Amino acid sequence: MEGMAGKRSSLSWAVNIAAFLLVLLWTIPTLGLFVSSFRDRDQIASSGWWQSFSASEQTGFVRTGTDDDARQEGGLYVIEGSVLEGDQQLVAWGTGARRPAEFQPGETARINDGWDLTVNADGSYRLTSAAPFEMRRGERIFTTTEVPPTITTANYQRVLTAEGLGRAFMNTMTVTIPATVIPILIAAFAAYALAWMQFPGRALLTAAVVGLLVVPLQVSLIPLLRLHNDLGIGKGYLGIWLAHTGFGLPLAVYLLRNYMVGLPREVIESARVDGATEFQIFRRIILPLSFPALASFAIFQFLWVWNDLLVATVFLGNTREQLVMTGVLRELMGSKGGEWEILATSAFISIAVPLIVFFAMQKYLVRGLLAGSVKGG
Amino acid sequence: MKTAFLTTAAVAALTAGLAQAQMVIEPGSDDRINWQSLEDFKAAHGDLEGQSFTILGPWLGEDQALFTSVLPYFEEATGAKANYSGSDSFEQQIVIDSEAGSPPDIAVFPQPGLAADLARKGHLTPLGEETAQWVRDNYAAGESWARLGSYAGADGAENFYAFPYKADVKSLVWYVPENFEDAGYEVPESYEDLKALTEQIAADGETPWCIGLGSGGATGWPATDWVEDLMLRLHSPEVYDAWTTNELPFNDPKVIAAIEEFGWFAKNDDYVAGGAAAVASTDFRDSPKGLFDFPPACYMHRQASFVPSFFPEGSEVGLDVDFFYMPAPADGSMGKPVLGGGTLFSVLSDNPAARAFVEFLKTPAAHEIWMTQKSFLTPHLGVDLEAYDSDTQKKLGQILLDASTFRFDGSDLMPGAVGAGAFWTAMVDYVGGKPAQDVADSIQNTWDTIK
Amino acid sequence: MELFWLAAGTIVIGVFGCVAWFWGSNWVLDAIYPPRGQNAGDNIRRANQIRPWLFLGPAILFLGMYLVYPVIDSLWRSLHSSDGSRFVGVSNYTWAAGDEKFRESMLNNMLWLLVVPALSTFFGLIAAQLTDRIKWGNIGKSLIFMPMAISFVGAGVIWKFIYEYRGPDETQIGLLNWLVTRLGGDPQIWLTLIPWNNFFLMIVLVWIQTGFAMVILSAALRGIPEETIEAAILDGASPMQVFMKIKVPQIMGTIAVVWTTITIVVLKVFDIVFVMTNGQWGTQVLANLMYDWMFRGSPDYGRGSAIAMVLMLLVTPIMVWNIINARKELR
After folding, report:
1. In whole angstroms, how far apart are CA A226 and each of A314, A377, B353, C47?
2. CA distance A111 to chain C (A)
3. Which positions in chain C touch A18 (Cβ < 8 Å)?
């Protein structure tokens, strides 16, 4: 007995470690995005996200004051100021772009035309000249500084306070919920018919559903929008619900049918013998037993509709009043799409609701007790 | 024109009964703006009360905010309501919407190629010869702009379909003046000087150029701009025109010379930051950042006038960074060619408010209101240059007005399969090591298959 | 608020409409052919011939309108010129057969079909089995599932932070190149390394689809009756044997479903390629090529549709296999 327990615990260790490694591998890429959503654009472009937790060396430059800031001190013209801000530590400095770290803090450098520049460790600088300064813009002081890790919530503030986000959230919900519920209902009935009812052409119809899974969305956009326009549905919620229902249906029927086929034959046969109608069998036996499959499909359909922008812009339109969340987030990224930090933040804001749905649905992913107890052999 | 009296009258008229909160500049308050032109427009089109129309365009984010800031002035003058919506997949959406029979009233095309295609399929409404003539008369290099919006319709007859509004200048080289000063480099005056400077920087052990072609789904397009600029510097504008219509085949020695000229810059490990291998995959949005590294990763970056939005935060154009005109050959044989781009407005329905909007775009005020804000250039000869928000913009606007030759981005003029496909891919292949002849042949092949 | 009522109203109307149809049509059927009285036997037989079609009706209507109709439309378009005005026979198909990019796409699609479904199903199965057996399984599941919840554009940026390349002297901001340089190697431009770049793109899809496989397979694994497993354990089977010999065969049907679904996702793969390379550097795939021809610049709908038809034909073997399978189930 003891030997077996030991074996079991070492095995469970192995399982834990293996699971941990797998989860880690799958999480690292997303973690990168998550960390990046707390950094500003320059940080993202200048160092890896994994380095954002350690103090980093940054190079940059500060301009000295100009003629207006100069004051006279004895025979000298002096400009003073500081090159540091916040918690930065000065490591080195320089006066030319090619050698930005030429001098140590405290050293004095002679700049071309008789000016002396001293930069101290505390960041204060002092530029002196015997003659009056003549400059259009401040002299550049290049600094290498050690910066403590900084995180910013500015990206989140910007995205969450974006104009029209609340409205867009409502729009998305209005699109998503019916577009998730309706296909499930329709597919469940169809899947039951394909799995448990006898009629000619059943196998062919099942295969047709599989075949329709592969229809690329892009080929359907023009004919369907034209159809909607001809039918007078035009662009609007009705159109997008119908479209999402149509596009989601093959996967729903396919997944549900394959699940229902696996349900214990005895239960259904005995119910039929007892004189239950097909409708009663469906409602009382099939639906409750199929909950895990219904829940998984609901999650996928929800996700797909939630993250969709293409179907929404085509079938709903994208004026201010019609915009869905993905549309607003896309707008924030600008025409040329270079704002990675907004993208990262948007991704995490839009991921929140689907994850809540996933958590909420998770307990339904376990098959009903009945199934296990009956199937037996 | 702008006497105090007229201005006051304009103010009185314009401020009557409107929601002023939406207007970025109170009518009449800024005398750089030609309020009288708005007033005249109102007199001619003030009878559209209660109408509305839709505009679909490629602008999002800041650009969208800037464009929609112009709309209230139109709405106030006419009483009609303009609904703009932007899309990041504009090309796809305009095709779907017009094919399916629910087009927007106005579409804003970033590329003439697509507009030409929709015109051929009969989706665009002609704007009339009068408007074409207006463009010829009132835009600098007006003939090139008018030609840009003229396409064959469904019946094969040539008509003016697309009104140009908002332009870009592409023949620009960006640099950090102080880095030039520190190293003792001079801004090149001629194309020969530019090449000499490139060699000199490399000889100094530094890297002259930052070039990045990466752009996700559109990777390769920055190289097409390079080749176009070089075409205009090696050959006459007529050769350029023949090239964009394929009268001059893509694999003509003249074109290959221009591609190889680009290779002189981009395929030399000593001339580009990260080495030639990095050119194709470096994102065009990231590549200008090399100018601002210490020590500098590069000294020059050729890119259009929009690029400052990808400079590090806080860099000020004119102070921290500046640009010079990509110079022409010293002998003056090519004049001062300018490569540019722009957006074109087309009407897709018979909505009178939409047609009135095109008339509105002819008023100097419609240009000046955007000019006072940000990132807007116009070839409109009737605008007040003082309206530009900065000296930089003014300098850019001046380049546009001074151009001896203005040529539109060639890849935008070519059929989409070439200009927004084969050309891009081929340039990526070229930078990746394929010979210029091979890639030019493959582009010409694609062009042949779509004829 | 108005919108809220609209949304709530539709859900109610939509859901109740569906329910009313299924319930009502059944009721009507039973009223016409009452399953009792003198003709009960006949009536039940007749009703049972009609009933499947009542259940299938709405689904067939939707599938017909939203999927079959567009397929017929693109078949028609694939036989016509770019603007649909001229019948051109099979010339769009012969063009495709001779097109270099099309061949490249076919080859790449085959590669994707071999690699992605296999790896996704494999990792999904492992993930399902492992997370079902540990205390923090639900959290683990959610983390593996998370990539599914991220939009493709988001995924593109995520992997940019992995594959990004900077010159050898610069700070690497791509994780992979950072690791490589740390280990003393030279940074690589991963997305342009032909042919390996195809695999770098595939990894992204595997990363996303594993969550799908895990969710479905986990539900199936939990459905295996406890008794069979306990019996095997009592017979002295090792955990590995239980997994391979008892569990996997029991859920073979579900594995096939997952495999099929991912295969079809792979056939349609578009966004990843579009966002990351747009089919350049030898990574073109059919769906992206189709998009190029349909919407880029001056679109040629005829050619785009021809490519779409080829893409749809590729699913035929799976359909045949499904027909055979369904016939088996009937027996």
Report:
1. 11, 53, 25, 38
2. 29
3. 126, 130
Residue carrying structure tokens 């704007």: B127
Tokens linked to A62: 């500060």
Dihedral, CA atoms, C295, A304, C156, C138, nearest 10 degrees? -170
CATH architecture for residues C99-330? Orthogonal Bundle (1.10)
What does DSSP assign to residue B104?
-
Q: Do domains B4-169+339-408 and B172-325+414-450 have the same CATH topology?
A: yes
Name which of A182, A299, A300 is nearest C14 (Cβ-Cβ): A182
Chain A, 201-230: which have a CB under 8 Å from a chain C CB? 202-220, 222-224, 227
Residue the block writes with tokens 């990792």: C123
Cα B59 to its chain centre, rounded Å, is 13
Sequence length of chain A is 377
Q: Are B24 and B366 in contact (CB under 8 A)?
A: no
pLDDT < 50 stretches in chain C: none
| Interchain CB distance below 8 Å, A194 and C56 | yes
Where do the structural domains in chain B lie, given as residue ranges?
4-169+339-408, 172-325+414-450
Chain-chain contact of C215 with A296 (C-beta, under 8 angstroms): yes
CA proximity to A189, closest of A301, A302, A295, A290: A290
Let me know if domain B172-325+414-450 sits in CATH 3.30.1300.10: no
Contact B250, B438 (CB under 8 A): no
CATH of A158-375, one of 3.40.720.10, 1.10.3720.10, 1.10.530.10, 2.40.50.140: 1.10.3720.10
What phi and psi, each to the nearest 5 degrees, are found at residue C39?
Answer: -95, 20
CA–CA min distance A158, chain C (Å): 18
Q: Which residues of chain B have pLDDT under 70?
A: 1-21, 216-217, 451
Residue B161 in contact with residue B149, Cβ under 8 Å? yes
Backbone angles phi, psi at C199, to 5 degrees: -70, -35
Q: What is the rounded (10 degree) CA torsion for C4, C10, C15, C17?
A: 150
Distance CA B273, CA B213 (A): 13
Backbone angles phi, psi at B187, to 5 degrees: -65, 125
**Window 59-98 of C, Cβ < 8 Å to A:** 59-60, 62-63, 65-71, 73-74
> Rounded distance, CA B23 to CA B31, Å?
16
Nearest-CB residue to C165 (from B121, B216, B278)? B278
What's the CATH superfamily of B4-169+339-408? Periplasmic binding protein-like II (3.40.190.10)
Report DSSP letters for B172-197, one per residue: EEEE-HHHHHHHT----SSHHHHHHH
**Among the partner residues B113, B121, B275, nearest to C83 by beta-carbon distance:** B121
Helix (H) or strand (E) holding C30: helix C2-32
Q: How confident is the prediction along chain A (377 residues), in pLDDT tens digits per residue? A: 444 445 566 778 888 899 999 999 999 998 888 888 888 877 787 788 888 777 777 777 888 877 777 888 877 888 888 888 777 788 888 887 778 888 888 888 887 777 888 888 888 888 888 888 777 777 888 888 887 777 888 888 888 887 778 888 888 888 888 899 889 989 999 999 998 888 888 888 888 888 888 888 888 888 899 898 888 888 888 888 889 999 999 999 998 998 888 888 888 888 888 878 778 888 888 888 888 888 888 988 998 898 888 888 888 877 777 788 888 877 777 666 667 788 888 888 888 888 888 888 877 766 544 443 333 33
Q: What is the interface pTM, i.e. ipTM, of the complex?
A: 0.86
- Which residues on chain B are in Cβ contact (under 8 Å) with C278? 216-219
Domains of chain A by residue range: 56-147, 158-375
Strand runs (DSSP E) across B40-80, as ranges?
Answer: 52-57
What global pTM score does this model have? Answer: 0.84
- For chain C, what are the domain ranges? 1-78, 99-330
